[in-house]
Amino acid sequence: MTAHPTDEPLDINQLMLASRAVLAAAVRALESVDADVSVPQMRVLVLLWTGQPLNLSAVAEGLGVNASNASRTCDRLVSAGLVDRGEDAVDRRQVALTLTPRGTAFVEKLMHRREQELAAIVTRMSERDRRRLMSALEPFNRAASTDLWPSQQPTSSRDRRLLEWGM
After folding, report:
1. DSSP 78-95
2. Residue 137: its pLDDT value, please?
3. What pLDDT shows up at residue 68?
4. Number of helices and strands (H, E) in the chain?
5. Looking at the predicted structure, is the pLDDT value of residue 37 above 60?
6. Domain that holds residue 127
């Protein structure tokens, strides 16, 4: 735990509870869309949802796993008809992974369902508390964006959506 500037321990209990609620909403959304897709597989789908073809090294880096684990995860997604595996247009020795139309529809349905899960929580709050929460989250999200997207800042609306998934 990081110390507060006054050297007193930082109390993040409310943030920990909120993180559990957000994670639970993401898991419920995934389960409601397709219980056969694992969390690592969902993360690959969201990585590919940015629209840029990725190679296995980029997927492995995005997942924080070795290339063989990433390859097995992608193999399952290809078998499920959610991901296409082709040759890279620039380097034919590289594999280019992209979402199929079914994969794109899956991620968009998942995103929508997750928004519904979070909205259901927020609508139980008063209007005043909702405004305060959203206002308080802006500086938190700015501070967190460098951890979530260290090499670059998001440039498109799809990139910004990717940040919401902690990818």
Report:
1. HHTTSEEEEE-SS-TTSE
2. 92
3. 92
4. 7, 2
5. yes
6. 13-164
Q: Looking at this protein, which amino acid is placed at residue 1?
A: M
- Render the burial of 82-110: b for 16+ CB within 10 Å, e for the rest: bbbeeeeeeeeebbbbebbeebbebbeeb
- Count of domains observed in the chain: 1
- Token pair, residue 92, equals 């034919």
CA distance 144 to 66: 25
Separation of alpha carbons 75 and 68, rounded Å: 10
**Residue whose C-alpha is closest to residue 98's, from 78, 84, 79:** 84
Give the pair of three-digit tokens for residue 102: 């079914």
Instruction: Detail the DSSP E strand segments found in the chain.
Output: 83-87, 95-99
Is residue 7, in this structure, part of any structural domain at all?
Answer: no
CATH of the domain at 108: 1.10.10.10
In a domain, 6, yes or no: no
Residue 140's CB: how many other CB atoms inside 10 A?
11
In a domain, 24, yes or no: yes
**pLDDT of 142-153, one tens digit each?**
888 776 554 444
Domain presence at residue 3: no
